[in-house]
Branched-chain-amino-acid aminotransferase (Fodinibius salinus), 358 residues
Amino acid sequence: MSTDNTFNITKVSSTRVENVNLDDPGFGERFSDHMLEVEYREGQWQKPSIKPFGTIEVTPALNTLHYGQSVFEGMKAYYADENTVNLFRPEKNHQRLVRSCKRMCIPPVSEDVFIDGITKLIKLDHQWVPQKEGNTLYIRPFVCAFDPIISARVSDSYRFFIITTPVGSYYNRPVKLTTSQKYARAVKGGVGAAKTAGNYAASLYPAQEAEEKGFDQVLWLDACEHKFVEEVGTMNIFFVIDGVLVTPELSGTILPGITRASVIQLAKHWGLPVKERRLTIDEVMEAGANGTLDEAFGAGTAAVIAPVEEIHHDGQSVRFDFEQRGPVGQKLHDQITDIQWGKAEDPFGWITPISVNS
Ligand code: COI
């Protein structure tokens, strides 16, 4: 074990990377050699440890397993060249983690531990960053309650982890979405804006029902009236209506996506009209019927810019016949991924490069 004053570091004796096909890694199935773990006890975060990736032993009474007091983040590391791996807006992920933690009564880790932890992990495991276009090393920071007590109360102890996994596309083809009049993802005053496990757990059953009907995901509507479009659960949603890029405004029930914010910033920079506003599913379906719905796409870290093939609502469908994305989605996809891979200028300072050979 070595220590650099701020981190304890135990390295693997040999890497497992040769056992993984980085050209076709799937999504989140294999994990790189090292992980980070930090303990919170006695009112403070302790010294972080980087160690070989492996199982953790927990009591069946672990608070998180029962009540879901946990939050996570999703980020990616992009291969730029043999000496450089890029992170995309990592400080934004830390800021969102802090907000999610606050909502879930979890003490947040500092930006230093978050960013330095990721940087150290990437330097150690940089050979796990896929070089093939479109593939990345997905970074999953998460924090969970660790009290060994099955009482529904705020925990006194926590663990923060970062694990990394080589990934390909989250969606391999354009997605088919359906609304639901029966289920809701999040209510006003709830935890919809926090990246917390329960939001994803709540969406599984409706998503399974949607899949049984031939759709990939639910396009969530507001929980009160089932009228206003919210998000997809795995990504935010965008429409191009009559030349205007429209996305639901952040209302407290929608995850404030970092890809979402980047799409908006980039589109505005290009002079494209952008509106973050409430929009009804009826308006979307009507635009589909009268020919003004030019395209629709999802935006998220895992999904990147995911084209939508179909939106189904109340027995009607709007279909897009692009082979992949429409022109606006494609242009945004290409520009964002080019910035992420270091192939295009980075006018907004979104990239944090990591030198992996120093
Ligand atoms: C991400 O986009 O990073 C997420 O956390 C979404 C998840 C469904 C993979």
